[in-house]
Amino acid sequence: MVPIIIDNEVKLRALLAHIADCLREEASQLLFVDLEGVNLGRVGTVAIMQMLVPPSPIVYLIDVHVLGAKAFEVTMDDNTSLKSILESKSVFKVFFDIRNDSDALYAHFRVNMAGVIDLQIIEYATRQPRGKFVNGLARCIEKDLPYSSDWSLVKANGRRLFAPEVGGKYEVFLERPLAADIVKYCEQDVLLMPQLLASYGPKLRSGVAAQIQTIIDDRLRLSKTTTYNGQGRHIAIGPYLAAAR
Asked: Is the peptide bond between 55 and the residue preceding it cis, with omega within 30 degrees of 0?
């Protein structure tokens, strides 16, 4: 399916209505979310928010660069907004490493993330042996979804445009219209998140869920502190998890 780009208020209202309908119909609805930007965080910019709303396979690319604060402020008659969805404790949003995404959303748009499921922490909690460091999304996909052969090609084509080490520039996320390879790049990760969650979920041991939630809450809290630094080797160090009983 071709991703749908949300770059005006009419399209945003249609998406919010669709999400609200899905949430009413599905008691345990999950939203899969990712962000792209230039130096994503408080000192950078948010360009695109990718969102997958199951059971539909369509990925929505919310153009935060074009919409600005309206992306989060536009509100429906039932008070549904993108901000209210992201801040809801009862609507579960699946991210992969929420820290810099939370940092960026809070710093630029005062969005207080809640109801977060962090796939990076779940993967770390289910990995045996865990080791010292958390895995990145690319490593998880390559290790745990070995049949996603097209993923590597899509990611390579995207990196060619935005990664400075291969001649790209991150500002490509701010160029409009978005390059076709960047659209595919944005779509790809969030499309595979449901498969990762399905892979890790059955491996979770009893007694670990509460620890995972505490770690995620700590990540959210720390991402909004004045001293938070989302870059560096320390970001890759795994959290402490007590042995499951």
From this structure: yes
Alpha-carbon torsion, ordered 77, 79, 85, 88, to 10 deg: -150
Beta strands 48-52; 30-36: pairing state: antiparallel
Most confident of the ranges 17-21, 119-123, 153-157, 210-214: 119-123
pTM over 0.90: yes
Instruction: Name which of 141, 159, 193, 178 is nearest 34 in CA terms.
Output: 193
Cβ contact 58:3 at 8 Å: yes
Question: Residue 34 pairs with which residues in a beta bridge?
Answer: 50
Q: Which domains, ranges and CATH numbers included, belong to the chain?
A: 4-225 (3.30.420.10)
User: Model confidence over 78-109: pLDDT tens digits?
Assistant: 999 999 999 999 999 999 999 999 999 999 99
Question: What distance in Å separates the CA atoms of residue 19 and residue 236, rounded to the nearest whole number?
Answer: 33
Which residues of the chain form beta strands (DSSP E)?
4-6, 30-36, 48-52, 59-63, 92-95, 116-118
Over residues 27-45, the pLDDT tens digits come to 557 999 999 999 999 999 9
Write out the two tokens for 162.
């935005």
